[in-house]
Design a protein that fits this description.
CATH class: Alpha Beta
Largest sheet: 8 strands, mixed
CATH superfamily: LigB-like
Distance between the termini: 21 Å
CATH architecture: 3-Layer(aba) Sandwich
Order of helices and strands: EHHHEEEEHEEHEHEHHHHEE
Radius of gyration: 17 Å
Length: 283
């Protein structure tokens, strides 16, 4: 069967892409944020995954408010960076792991999840930024991708518990995939932020740090929280963190936190990451 190599949670803040495009990676303002990802980048590069399953939300680019799937799955051979208003970014297209994606589609339907199947899909910063934070900016991406898109924009939004169950289903799909491919699962979004309304500009560094510290060893309270509690604790857009639960639900009950990082503020948001390995895999 395929190997679940690691689970990785990370922010996907659009200003990160702008900083990279403008050559700000090593400036005093941005270096502390980007440097915090270096250990995870080095670990992933040494392990050489074949497939990255990326859980993210579209931001009104591939889908708009007239048609918002609760759950969508990309099964394409290739995904291009979408134009978010300033032209497509200068990064290579993403190769799709179409065979595994179709296998996952079958597993989802058999497991009573009903995704919108996307044979063609352009992807926004929700996928672009995590890939750059983990794999840098290569001439060609070293992994194939499987995009899983979750609606966190237009209510009703799926529950945290449903996202955990999706992670468990994803784990079964990986274990039933008859190859020796190595797979990393990336849950993206957050951390705390709110971009509109009376709490515009809200961030909660204490809750962000608790999330990063606990999502590996003690995820139960985050899994069992109501979505309204996510909005109250992390802000309306910080509720994107439910997508990390897909990644965490895919992992074993016991995991080892290999690396974590937190930085705030990063464009009106707390931002950071955590890299997890199943405890039985640890040396």
């Amino acid at each position: 069967m395929a190997e679940l190599l690691a689970g990785l949670g990370t922010s996907h803040v659009p200003s990160i892409a702008a900083a990279l495009d403008k050559g700000l990676r090593h400036t005093p303002e941005w270096a502390p944020f980007f440097d915090g990802y270096t250990p995870a980048q080095d670990w992933i590069a040494a392990k050489k995954p074949d497939i990255a399953v990326v859980i993210f939300n579209d931001h009104g680019n591939a889908f708009f408010l007239d048609r918002v799937p609760t759950l969508a799955l990309g099964v394409a051979e290739e995904y291009h960076p979408i134009d978010e208003g300033w032209g497509p970014r200068p990064i290579p297209p993403f190769r799709g792991a179409a065979d595994f994606a179709w296998h996952l589609a079958d597993c989802m339907v058999e497991g009573h999840f009903d995704p919108l199947i996307c044979r063609e899909l352009d992807v926004d910063h929700g996928l672009q930024v995590p890939m750059e934070l983990v794999f840098g900016r290569p001439a060609a991406w070293p992994v194939k991708v499987v995009p899983i898109l979750i609606n966190t924009i237009q209510y009703p939004v799926p529950t945290p518990q449903r996202m955990w169950e999706l992670g468990k289903l994803l784990r079964k799909a990986i274990e039933n995939w008859p190859t020796d491919e190595k797979i990393v699962v990336m849950g993206t979004g957050g951390l705390s932020h709110q971009l509109q309304g009376a709490r515009a500009g809200f961030i909660n560094p204490a809750a962000d740090r608790a999330w990063i510290d606990e999502i590996g060893p003690a995820p139960d309270r985050w899994r069992d929280m109501a979505l309204t509690d996510y909005v109250e604790t992390f802000g309306s857009e910080g509720a994107e963190l439910i997508m990390w639960l897909v990644m965490r639900g895919c992992m074993d009950a016991r995991v080892k936190t290999l690396h974590s990082h937190y930085f705030a503020p990063a464009s009106m948001t707390g931002a950071g990451m955590v890299l997890l390995e199943n405890a039985v895999c640890s040396s």
